[in-house]
Amino acid sequence: MQIRCANSADLNTLVILDKISNITNWSLNDYQNSFNNKQHFIYILEEHGKISACIVFSVVCDEAEILQLWVENNSKRKGLGIYILNYTLIELRKKHMILRVFLEVRDGNESAINLYKKAGFLEVGRRHKYYNIDAWQFDALIMQKEFLGF
Ligand SMILES: CC(C)(COP(=O)(O)OP(=O)(O)OC[C@H]1O[C@@H](n2cnc3c(N)ncnc32)[C@H](O)[C@@H]1OP(=O)(O)O)[C@@H](O)C(=O)NCCC(=O)NCCS
User: How far, in Å, is the centroid of ligand 1 from the Cα of 78?
Assistant: First the structure.
């Protein structure tokens, strides 16, 4: 198992895996925009040469935001989500000198909310009816992790 930065040749595969693994999936355009943005980072977790998970985050000054995170369907609940998330948090703290990390998650997405709580995130706000999925509206929870004492 290894974690590396995505390269341009990975982007089409990321779109395919994201689409089947994640309700709030990104388009190729979304991945390309992040890939071309110097403040964005795309990390992928590979097992035996196959992509199993992906995380996208941005860094601005001493703050970071997690923009996307998914684990491929057949690899869920095997610890890969917490592994790539914790790897990213350590990189943010040690390499980028980040003090706090934000993210938005759909209300009701218990697997992701539990994962983020396990990694030390706390709910700090809510955006009402932020997500529109199949004509349903969902709030977005805003979660934050402070690195004090990390
Ligand atoms: C959220 C997601 C990334 C978790 O990845 P994962 O590899 O399956 O999670 P892990 O095996 O590392 O589990 C870590 C913790 O997450 C939580 N968790 C993961 N799956 C869960 C589930 N189905 N139900 C409840 N809690 C869950 C648990 O707290 C778990 O800790 P535990 O095993 O001690 O109970 C994965 O379910 C996913 O890709 N979901 C779709 C995309 C998505 O919603 N991304 C979030 C965008 S904000």
Answer: 9
CB of 22 closer than 6 angstroms to any ligand 1 atom: yes
| Residues of the chain above pLDDT 70, percent | 99
Segment 119-134 mean pLDDT: 90
Residue with tokens 């196959």: 50
What is the rounded distance in angstroms from the CA atom of residue 109 to the CA atom of residue 114? Answer: 9
Quick: pLDDT tens for 73-119.
Answer: 999 999 999 999 999 999 999 999 999 999 999 999 999 999 999 99
Could you tell me if the CB of 82 is within 6 A of ligand 1? yes
**pLDDT higher than threshold 60 for residue 141:** yes
Please say whether the beta carbons of 143 and 122 come within 8 A: yes
**Domains of the chain by start residue, with CATH:** 2-146 (3.40.630.30)
Instruction: Encode 134-145: b = buried (16+ Cβ within 10 Å), e = exposed.
Output: eeeebbbbbbbb
